[in-house]
Design a protein that fits this description.
Keywords: Copper, Electron transport, Heme, Iron, Membrane, Metal-binding, Respiratory chain, Translocase, Transmembrane, Transmembrane helix, Transport. One of its GO terms (cellular component) is plasma membrane. Its main location: membrane. The chain has 343 residues and is α+β, with helices and mostly antiparallel strands. The chain has 8 helices and 12 strands. Bound molecules: dinuclear copper ion (CUA). Dinuclear copper ion binds next to loops.
Length: 343
Amino acid sequence: ITALIVIVSALMSYFTWISDWPIGLIPAGDPAPSTDFLFKFLGIVASWIFNIVTIYTIYFAIVFRRPNDAPASAIGVQIHDQPVLEFWWTVIPTILVVILAIFSVKIWSDIQNTQGDVLTVEAIGYQFGFQFRYPKLAQPVTGIMHLPLNTPTTIHVTSRDVLHGFWIPEMRIKADMVPGLVNTLRVTPTKAGTYRIICTEFCGDGHGLMKTQVVVENQQDFAKWFHQQGGTAGAGGGSSAAIALGAGKADAGQALFGQKCSACHSVGPYAQKLVGPGLGQIFSDSAHPKLVNGADPTPQNVAMILKNGYQGDLGIMPSSQVNQISNTDIANLVAYLVSLSKK
Ligand code: CUA
């Protein structure tokens, strides 16, 4: 039995150690190798304990089962006072827990340590999206986070409304986004690419859609992007190129509105507010002659808000990048809103 336990546990340990684990999540940031090591180490310790307990339990249940000729009320031999056994089953788990604690504290302090901070980013959660600010930029950057490769980065995360979660699986970093509290994460991106950022706290009916991306790029590309952000007023990159609205289809826009907009906007009058204002009479509501950003309520101006988003005293509207709305989609949505205003 002991040989069986050793063989099974050794095999499980071996495959845990060599596996590309956690499966499918390539490590893309600096805490990843050490957290993955801790994960595998825990898995190996757990597999030995699991096998010792379950295999012996099964073995004892078979070998020491009640004989067929014994009465149903028969009980086994009662054993008391085994100081040697009691000593070891106290000492061994204690040693294991202390070893795990030492590894965990070491790795945790490595993650928390500043390594000559180069970049600071603020990540703010809201229903239902993420906003990123770089303290050296006057304007907040909506939607997608950019990080330079191999640069130690501090990310301050917080929330504007309710509890959210900030998780980049490939970098093995995760923190709660709590209104009124700033949590700090440290990461050094080690692999260029685009990775997911996911909200991990149930935060309302848009929770499942609350995700965005982090773009890790080389220093030159990051500097170029950073320069572009600094050079534009307005949020989300602030494109002001007009969008062709002529081919917009109201019925396609209606379907899209149900998927992308209806969590936050009703199709009632402006005052019929959910998270944002009602959009059913956005072009004809004389009580609200201006859009949220102060522009006139023309189809083109509404399209620009859909494209660039809005951030200000009256709230936040994520940009089309965050909402993954193409220019064609914008044209369809505007056509739908125009058709509503005519009714
Ligand atoms: Cu934010 Cu879930």
